[in-house]
Amino acid sequence: MFTGIVEIIGVVSELNHQSEDGGTTLTISNASEILGDCNLGDSISINGTCLTVTQFDKSSFKVGVAPETLRRTNLGSLKQGSNVNLERAVSASTRMGGHFVQGHVDTVATILKIEPDGNAKTFRFQPKDKSVLKYIVEKGYVTLDGASLTITKVNDEEAWWEVMLIAYTQEKIVISSKKPAEEVNVEVDQIGKYVEKAVEGYFLKGSSGEPAILQKMVERIV
Predict the structure, then answer these.
(1) Claim: this prediction has a pTM higher than 0.90
(2) CATH architecture classification, 107-195
(3) Residue 201: its pLDDT value, please?
(4) What EC number(s) does this enzyme carry (predicted)?
């Protein structure tokens, strides 16, 4: 579990593609600030993707990226020298400055345009999987490349949403250096998924054909 508050920006120093299984091993450097309490098997979010530390030293660490992860995220487009957002998994004493983030990417989104607004920037995104738009609401949360951001505008018909990055945030996350047509990892707010599942239980029959909860309640009353 993460908060979406990026701790530092790391650098991809090495990529090793595994021909036998189709996966990739990444080495992330410039990460000494988050490795002081690191242990093998720890989870670190890399661009919003929860990955397991398999090896580390004082300033760098390695993770394995499975083929499924490469298909579902933008990690497959990383190159040597690419910057990535990094965040350690939460601890019991972590301040919840963002929102509950799992590190499970739902889809990728393309940057449609970037517009300056004073010293801030407005980014417009269009998701590859349009179904995630039902979880995108104005003033709600969305995780983009591991950063917890507030949605400022949504257009369901044209299938896009916008977020604004203030000057401080621009210095702390990798999205600010990206350009139109580039992709970001997207994780929607999981609370919306739980609400949807709960509401469906009231109106839809279960997989085994049992009546919906609402129907059961009505039958008891009448």
Answers:
(1) no
(2) Beta Barrel (2.40)
(3) 66
(4) 2.5.1.9
